[in-house]
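Bench notes, afternoon.
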Amino acid sequence: MVSEYGASIFENMRINETKLGIKADYLQTVQIKTEVKDTSRAFLVEWIIDVHRKFRLLPESLYLTVLIVDRYLSL
């Protein structure tokens, strides 16, 4: 219904993605002995995937959940 705004919406999303993106090596930069390590994150994501399969959720909910976990851990 608003196709004339599609190009500007995607351009804005692309700009925000570069500004707000998560660094690929965030686990190495914030690793302190009391914080979550990469293996702990792997177990957490594996558990999230199991829950996702059990409740037959949409793929978007899985992607969003992992994104939220990564954003939280990167802070």
